[in-house]
Amino acid sequence: MSKYQYIKQSAYEANMQLPKLNLVLFTFGNVSAADHDLGVFAIKPSGVPYEYLSPEKMVIVDFDGNTIEGDLRPSSDTKTHAVLYKHWSDINGIVHTHSTYATAWAQSQRCIPIFGTTHADYLTVDVPCAPPMNDEMIQGNYEYQTGFQIMDHFEKKGLDHKEVEMVLVGNHAPFSWGKSAEKAVYNSAVLEAVAHMAYLTEQINPQAKRLQDSLIKKHFERKHGPDSYYGQ
Question: Does residue 231 fall inside a structural domain?
């Protein structure tokens, strides 16, 4: 058995959740699962329909984007995953989708406003939207530069990737991450739900106001604060 079997299994199971959660159409998405001790991650092969996936078809790649094990080409977004893993050593799962509502906000080049308590259960800020990539970066190593596009935006805005585990890439689509591939998928589903709710909110009331600070603090801290009391 391959020493990478468990991350292959993790990546496979996480990828199979994307169509179940209606986060992907056809092959529009990918999940990876990393092992920082081994310096590698497992990722979906490029362009393979989800119904044909298996743990054995996951491709093992190092944090420089080189294929270490596997007969298939890795996802076209592999270098973005590699950059994020190389620089953010505390994440072990990354998801990229083109889910409808999150992608619509990305295409609109807009952050998702924190309108309600559902959003505040997970974030204390708007979902960030990184600006579109400039021409020089696009014409260079595009997928590699996408990773830096995300990281540079977080640095510029003073955001902590351990607290804000999701981003929109302007004119492109969403990425999410977490301590595991499973958690990254969870965050991707939350992002799509929040994006959908925010879209509907603006349709119902174009002048809708952001959630007041006291409610943001209350809802986030009851789940994540030192005195959290949500759940068992």
Answer: no
